[in-house]
Amino acid sequence: MNRSLNKPSYKVNLIRQHCICESNYHKLLKLLPNLDQQDEYTLLVSHSVHQGKMHFHVQNRARYTTTLRITFEADWSQWLALPTMQVRLYHDAAMAEVTSVQKIRYFEPVYTYPNDKMLLPDEKEQLNLFLSDWLNFCFSGGHVHYGIV
After folding, report:
1. pLDDT tens-digit profile of 122-132?
2. More confident residue, 9 or 98
3. Separation of alpha carbons 88 and 31, rounded Å
4. CB count, 10 Å around CB of 85?
5. Contact residues for 115 (Cβ-Cβ < 8 A; gap 6+)
6. Residue 83 pLDDT
7. How far from 30 is each of 51, 94, 122, CA to CA, in Å?
8. Beta bridge partners of 84
């Protein structure tokens, strides 16, 4: 008997996703303290002997939202493609959500698996967790230098 047929399907945990998005929002504001006035940030990070840069570019600023484009550049990118992502900050809700990665825009809350794009059932949550991990890396795993543009 196939074990995957008995596996329960993924169900969105809205409380967990909101917590991740709220945490990402506050981490971004801490990393980018003048986000309401400054459009470009470059943060240098290092881990062990490896060096990298995270570039933040404000693409759109509205009354209640700010859209950031985040790109990564690192000396380990020869063997690992680093993603480009777009993150929308919702200031009224104090949340930050990944809205696109590479060329994929808009993510469904749940995907059936397997699917045409081979996205995970919880792809949206995984992307927000990935952003959280990168922001945590900036705070704890490397050295962040402020004010470099």
Report:
1. 988 999 999 99
2. 98
3. 15
4. 20
5. none
6. 84
7. 21, 13, 27
8. 71
